[in-house]
C-alpha cells in the first residue's frame, strides 16, 4: 500500500510526490441531522459510516466530518429572529457535552484510522456556525446578513463567544486525541457591502482568532473557502491566512487550480472537480475522467497540487470512481517522469 503520509508531506511541502493526492468526502446524515449530536441514533450512524468510508475509500488523507456538531448549543436553544435574541448567545465552556462529545468522537475515529494517514477534523469559523444555523437549519437565507448589517458589533460579540468554545475544542482535540490537523471552513459574507476593507475589519479577525489557537498546536491546516451555487468568495482576501493549503469551489468561483494557486501565493491547492449532481465526477466514463485529470494537471502542474471537489460529494457515489482518480493520477505521474 502507498505511504499516504509521504504523499501528503510532498503536497504540503509544495513538492512533487509519487502522484498527486486526492481529497474527497461526503456527509453521512441529512442536513437537519447535522445538528443532532444529542441523538444517539444519529451519532451511531455518523460513526459507523465514517469508519466504513475510511475502510472502503482508503482516502489519501481523512477529513473527519463534523456531522451532528454543526450547531453551537447556545445558538440552538431556540429559533433566533431578532438582535435581542442573538445577543443572548453565550459561550458554553470547555467541559460542555457538545465539546466532550466531539473529543470522544474524534478520538474514536482517529484510533480506527490508525497512524499511517493524516487525520483532519472539520471546524467552522465562528461566523460560519451562525450562518449555517440560520440558513441550513432555520432555512432563512436573509437573516444572517440582515442581523450582521443591522448591528455588526452584536454579531461580532456573539461570534467571539462561539470562538472561545471553538478554541477550547481545539485545545482538547490536540491534547486528548491523535488528530493531525484541522480542516477550517470559511466564507465571505454574501453581501456586496462587505468589501475587502469590511472583511478585514469584521470577518478576518474572527477567522484568525481560531486559526491562531490552532497554530499553538500545529500548522497543518487546510483552508476550505466555501462556495456553492450563488455563494461565491474573493480568494485574494484569504491569501495571507496562515494555512498550509487551500480548497475552493472552482466551478462557483470560475477560478481554476492554476489561477488560484497564483492568487494564493503559490501555496498548495487541491480541487478541480464539480461536486454538483450530474457532473463529470458521477457520470463520466473512466476515459472522460482521465481526460479531465490530464487537462487539470497539464495546466496546474503537480507540485503542491491535489485533486478534489468543490465541496462535499454525493453520499451515493460509486467509490470505484475515486479509485479511478488515484489510478489515473499514478499513470500521469509515470508518463511525465
From TrEMBL:
Q: Which GO terms describe its biological process?
A: porphyrin-containing compound biosynthetic process
Q: Which GO terms describe its molecular function?
A: uroporphyrinogen decarboxylase activity
Coiled-coil parts of chain: none
Domain (Uroporphyrinogen decarboxylase (URO-D)) ranges:
82-329
Q: Which domain of life is it from?
A: Bacteria
Protein name stated in the entry: Uroporphyrinogen decarboxylase (URO-D) domain-containing protein
Species source reads Oribacterium parvum ACB1
